[in-house]
Amino acid sequence: MKRTHLRLFLYATLWFLPTLAWATTHDSLPREHSQGTPASPRIVSKDSTFTVQLHGTVRGKFEYQPDLGKSRFEVRNARFSLSGSVTPLVDYKAEIDLSDEGSIKMLDAYARLHLLKRSVRVTIGQMRVPFTIDAHRSPHAQYFANRSFIAKQAGNVRDVGATVGWSFGDCVPVTLQGGLFNGSGLTNQKDYWTRTFNYSAKASFLFAERVNLSLSVQKIHPDIVDIRMYDVGAYYENARWHIEAEYLRKHYAEEAFPGVNVVDAFVCRHLPLRSRSLKQISLLARYDYMSDHSRGLADASGALIADDPERHRVTGGVTLGLGLPFRADIRINYEAYFYRSGVVPALSEQDKFVAEFMVRF
């Protein structure tokens, strides 16, 4: 009898929970939301200050390297996140990637407090540090199938810490952000203690609702010496064009490694369509460059080594927008790499054709 009762309880629970979630969502949302297709799955309780939003990004790609005559399929990202509010002043977010180049990684896990009519926000937890333009883009908002050198090698930092942000200004909106971080990364938090925190700060200015200027600085300590990075970037954007340029300078303390220069510049021309299935075609061209680069990790002799050799890259591509903005894109790119004589490039850092299908929900 006990097993029979347990089975009945489990069956009832499995039936009741989806019904409750459906009823909660449809009863609490405005009628126009319940009848249409929402931007993302959302649950709102009777206390309207509590919300849950589910987002996801899936990127599958095919790559072919003509010099090697080899190709591959790859799931570049399979991200899922929960975000929302628990009170009018408190937000949260938790995001995980089930396939970040084949690895499972916890990306964001933070709580955020809004103050002074939401113009000031305090965030604590695990997050991407406020630094650069391109490295701060989520995968679904990237313009190219593969990230720039700034976004992948030089300026891509997530860490555990706390930030304060302040947004103000009517004619020229300004956003200031700054924070302190462990320097432990995402997986080494439990027994990590430090006497000095890493820091990062960023200022963004929007002119005439078209031109964005960003200035940022960051200090990290990955191993034996401090590394300071300075970044300046700007872009112009309207309904048809996006033109962007960014420069990053990386300086190693005690002259442990030569300073690194990184450049990213690209242009995107949107061609809107009236088709019901194909919303837009975008034509893109990018140039990016990176001098010899070290992540700042010392070898057995205590010296910093070059993890990435100097290289130039030119990328051309076309993006087929099936859902806007950045909802469903087919990105077709060709990347041409240029190394100095004698350099043996990494397997995945060579001329390649890339076709990617990105879906955001």
Features:
globular, Porin, mainly beta, 361 residues, 16-stranded antiparallel barrel
Shape: globular
Oligomer: single chain
Query: What are the segments in which pLDDT stays under 50 over at least 5 consecutive residues?
Result: 8-38
Rg, rounded, reads 23 Å
Total separate domains: 2
Q: Per CATH, what is the topology of the largest domain? A: Porin
Percent range of helical residues: 10-25%
Number of strands: 17
CATH class of the largest domain: Mainly Beta
The topology string of helices and strands comes to: HHEEEEEEHEEEEEEEEEEE
* Main sheet properties: 16 strands, antiparallel, barrel
Q: What amount of the residues lies in strands?
A: over 45%
Return the structural class: mainly beta
Strand order of the largest sheet: 2-3-4-5-6-7-8-9-10-11-12-13-14-15-16-17
CATH architecture of the largest domain: Beta Barrel
What order do the helices and strands come in, and which of them pair?
Layout: H1 2-28, H2 31-35, E1 42-44, E2 51-65, E3 70-87, E4 90-100, E5 103-115, E6 120-128, H3 149-154, E7 158-168, E8 174-181, E9 198-207, E10 211-220, E11 227-237, E12 241-252, E13 260-272, E14 280-290, E15 311-323, E16 328-339, E17 352-360
Antiparallel strand pairs: 1-2, 2-3, 2-17, 3-4, 4-5, 5-6, 6-7, 7-8, 8-9, 9-10, 10-11, 11-12, 12-13, 13-14, 14-15, 15-16, 16-17
Description:
This protein is mainly beta and 361 residues long. The chain folds into 2 domains: 1-38; 39-360, Porin (Beta Barrel), CATH 2.40.160.10. It has helices spanning 2-28, 31-35, 149-154, and strands at 42-44, 51-65, 70-87, 90-100, 103-115, 120-128, 158-168, 174-181, 198-207, 211-220, 227-237, 241-252, 260-272, 280-290, 311-323, 328-339, 352-360. A hairpin with a 6-residue loop joins strand 10 and strand 11 (227-237).
